[in-house]
């Protein structure tokens, strides 16, 4: 079938530093390759990421041999697995092995997106001299788009890949510190959680990547302050589009000049439209954008609107405002169904230590009132210990409910 | 006691919506003249549900529309879990 398999790619990118660290196990990549022979098989092979090392071995064994590799997230239950397997079996075969990824689905049911190894690795950094100096930490599920990008970047870039074990973020961070990880990718939500952990400063970070959610200025600033030497970039990508772009100037959003009308343009609903080249159809990302004179800012999902008595609000607007308030470590804004207004704006807030709920909430109410309309201000403020994130590290956003 | 809880949260709802509450809210104050608008009342009822654990307007069989502050307090007292 395909000429360049994952094995073949890895063989080209080996450096003396190419290494896989999974929990306490350390594996040289060339030994892993030798110990994992290719397997001839057919049609759909399901690969679960519940055990990350086995997941990577399976990629090595079956890419180029199976028609379809169904990448199952660690959290997939029997019901979801069966549904995805049926979807996978129904897809027509292609020339190359298809890598089938489930959309992370901040809302709705996951669907499968078909990629090729080529499309997944097209944008990776291939400088093996630089790559050999990097040690990547994996905080995402490798069966998700963002996690797979980290795995492929580390392995195809000649770097080491460190896969922490265990559920607790504190434990995982300690393993990353012990393994001297210096390159790390996480969602802005996950970075905010990491920033609250006292140990984060011990990571010798040189490459910081944010992705999977829109990145706010406060989180960028906090990372810049903590890691002044690191290169910080935020990625915009959608599983559907396969590729996106990365921004490295330390500012939220991206330059307005990037809306070139060839591969990126605003759509009729003020969402971002993308395509990988001028021959292809435009893909509506569903991500709302605001275009100012020199910058484009993400404003949340088109279908994430909160409807308050007929007025529409993007939760991200209030969220980024709350993140800029003194004493606020993290915030999640959402619509709470209400008989009278359809929805009320509700906000869960994580406080920084040393701040009281009463003082911070009072200041938030006053600041919101001076900045926004009354219906836009959080009607319900709640203190929470942490903001819940999905398996993909994103804030869990429910489909906005309305009474229209 | 119930009256105090409601007054505290009325003040909070007024703060959130930027409304001016009438200076001396009492038993006979007409709700529509209290200073809170419909958003303010929606917030008040939602906050009371958070604090008290129930929303009388969603559990009552026949809809009752309180006219005065006194009637509003009475509804919350009547539906309080025994």
Model description:
The complex is a heterodimer of chains A (404) and B (82). Chain A is 28% helix and 26% strand. Chain A is α/β, with parallel strands linked by helices. In chain A, strands 2-1-8-7-9-10-11-12 form an eight-stranded mixed sheet, sandwiched between helices. A five-stranded antiparallel sheet of chain A has the order 13-17-16-15-14, covered by helices on one side. A four-stranded mixed sheet of chain A has the order 3-4-5-6, sandwiched between helices. The longest helix of chain A has 15 residues, at 357-371. The model of chain A is unreliable at 399-404 (pLDDT under 50). Chain B is mainly alpha-helical and 82 residues long. Chain B has one domain (2-78): Non-ribosomal Peptide Synthetase Peptidyl Carrier Protein, Chain A, CATH 1.10.1200. Helices cover 55% and strands 0% of the residues of chain B. Chain B contains four helices and no strands. Chain B is globular and about 35 Å long. The mean pLDDT of chain B is 91. The interface between A and B is medium-sized, with 19 and 18 residues.
Note the main attributes of this structure.
heterodimer, A: 404 residues, Rossmann fold, 2 domains, 8-stranded mixed β-sheet, 5-stranded antiparallel β-sheet, 22 strands, disordered C terminus, B: 82 residues, mainly alpha, 4 helices, 0% strand, ACP-like_sf (chain B), Phosphopantetheine attachment site (chain B), PP-bd_ACP (chain B), ANL_N_sf (chain A), medium-chain fatty acid-CoA ligase activity (chain A)
